[in-house]
Amino acid sequence: MSERPGETAAERVPASERKPASSRAKRLIGGALALIATIVVVVNQRDVGIARDEVVYMQNGAHYADWWVGLVTLDHGISEKSVTQTFGGPGATDNNREHPPLMKTLFGLSEKLLHRTLGVAGEVTAFRLPAAIMHGVLVLLAYAMVLELWGTAQAIVAALLLVFLPRAVFHAGLACFDAPAMTLWFATIYAYRRGLDGRRWPWQVGVLWGLALATKHTALLLPFALGAHYLIVAWRVRPQLAGATRAARVLAAVRAVIGYRWRVIVSLAVLGPLTLYVLWPWLWFDPVHHVRDWLAFHTNHVHYNYEYLGRNWNAPRFPWHVALVTTLFTVPVATLAAAAAGTGVWIAERTRRAAGAPELLLALSAAASAGPFFFGTTPIFGAEKHWMPVLPTICIAAAVGAVWAARTAAGTMATLRPARAHLAGRLAIGVIAGSVVLAAAVETQVAEPYALTWYNALAGGAPGGADLGMNRQFWGVAARGVLARLAAEAPATGTRFVYTHDASPAWGTYQRQGLVPRTLVDAGWEQGGIDRSQLALVIHERHFNRHDYLIWSSYGTVQPIYVLCTGGVPIVSVYRRPAK
Predict the structure, then answer these.
(1) Where are the beta strands (DSSP E) in 130-267?
(2) Pairing of the two strands 496-499 and 535-539
(3) What is the reported pLDDT for 355?
(4) Which of the two residues, 412 and 382, has the higher pLDDT score?
């Protein structure tokens, strides 16, 4: 049987000879890995504090969900007034119109069903569940892609490495867009690659890109990766016209590129924007003006404070290496080492897998996601959450590298004892690839629930990250860890005012959850709030240092009553005003 370029061993077996039972078992493995990923995220998020952005997304998501439910139940119709009151408004941030609605709507529907209607999940967990499920979907898609292209061992390892990514697990547990955006980005990559097989209607790639657009504006970068890959692959299969004029060869090449898989391009160009339009009611009225407003908000986005390598950054130009260094410090070292080996394997074997060039596609995907941060003008305040689509590429490369290393070691063992070559191969994969996964799992366990303070062994762990001047956290999530200490200071009757600092937006939710009693009242912001308060907390980021000084001056003491640490690194301090 002849071998086609890029064809896997499984594809060379006639369909009639393939084992359905084996295929079913592999599908079950993929489903089990996706379920494990979802469970890991859901369990971990219970101890993760509420990010201030989450409060906005939860509130607006609940409104979006109520609007859609009302539309389906005919409680209201479609009018510009009702759409604007729910999804838009004259201000740049009215009803959170600056972000597409897909995940917010899912957050709201989940909370409405699981918390308000069925009562089977807490309020915050119900809001966060769609993002956790999306992370499970990412694991399943990565498993499916690697299974098809490289094999079962690589597929399982790639999926497990995605499960055990400390920062990804953290972000996937929030009612935010970054982890779901990574999932839908990769889903588009996956559908695009499959669409290159010549199928008549590759509608999936356009719809999935539309879903990605309806999740986060960063999906607008995807066409750079897909377009570059399409041109390269189409150029490779152009006809070679020996003896033809240069003009004839150029014309033939252009025709070949345009006609290579033109339906994929049409799907992206038509179904992508159409899906975004259908899912975002704010675009139903005056879509051109509203799309312009949406994009203008992000192209002129404010530059929040962010600490990187010992300096507080809040205006460009930013260091060109932010994405590179932060990624190197926030992915488990064993995964990075295996990914380096896998990249070497891809480069060495690039001529063997010419059809579809999946390695090139994954590399371009990562480059398109992180590329804007190398220019020094893109806001860096969210760090790794902004370029999370690089993570599937890293984990897939790591899986290829780990299994290659295992099989290379097994080959050496087989030369010594040929009779046990098969056993040696399985043992080597279990030991070497298993060690890579285990190392990532240990780092994930150590990192949570304060994964934003965690850094890998290259940085020296959380203490090393602090010494290097890497950002300790953002969004106020770490306040969750001091709520029990604050609750112990609550009076039995009356009220006690608390300066809640960056946890202020989430304070009401914490009270509804019963994590702090109603007698602890948010004192307000800045100096007035501090002077009014009897208790105060400070969430440690470099640009928040002044809040310590304000509290010291108002309270007449520099001594906190409690300091929350992780890995020996202080992340939240609690103060109590001394009795007069």
Answers:
(1) none
(2) parallel
(3) 63
(4) 382
The answer to whether 161 touches 443, Cβ cutoff 8 Å, is no
Tens digit of pLDDT for each residue in 420-449?
Answer: 666 777 888 889 999 999 999 999 999 999
Identity of the residue numbered 191:
A
Instruction: Give start and end residues of each alpha helix (H) in 429-482.
Output: 434-447, 461-467
Does residue 234 contact residue 257 with C-beta atoms inside 8 Å?
A: yes
Which residues lie below 8 Å from residue 190, measured CB to CB, with a gap of 6+? 141, 144, 145
Tell me, what's the pLDDT at 9?
Answer: 44
Instruction: Give CA angle at 122 (519, 280), nearest 5°.
Output: 110
Residue 175, both tokens: 């009612």
What are the tens digits of pLDDT across the range 174-230?
999 999 999 999 999 999 999 998 888 999 999 999 999 999 999 999 999 999 999
Mean pLDDT of the chain: 91
pLDDT surpassing 90 at residue 301: no
Distance of alpha carbon 501 from alpha carbon 437, whole angstroms = 38
Q: Which amino acid is at 347?
A: I
- Which of 87, 78, 81 lies closest to 60, judged by CA? 87
Biggest CA–CA distance in the chain, Å, is 98
Cα 417 from Cα 257, distance rounded (Å): 51
Total-model pTM = 0.92
Confidence at residue 1, expressed as pLDDT on a 0 to 100 scale: 36
Calpha distance 59→479 (Å, rounded): 20
Residue 469 has φ and ψ, to the nearest 5°, of: 80, 35
In whole angstroms, what is the distance from residue 88 CA to residue 358 CA? 40
Among residues 363, 379, 376, 394, the alpha carbon closest in space to that of 167 is found at 394
Distance of alpha carbon 42 from alpha carbon 163, whole angstroms: 12
Token pair of 59 as six digits: 């509130």
Rg (CA), the chain: 26
CA 276, distance to chain mean position in Å, is: 20
Cβ within 8 Å of residue 433, ≥6 positions away: 153, 157, 399, 402, 403, 406
Determine whether 388 is exposed, middle or buried from the number of CB atoms within 10 Å of its CB (0-12, 13-18, 19+).
Answer: buried
Angle between helices 203-213 and 178-195 (to 10 degrees): 160
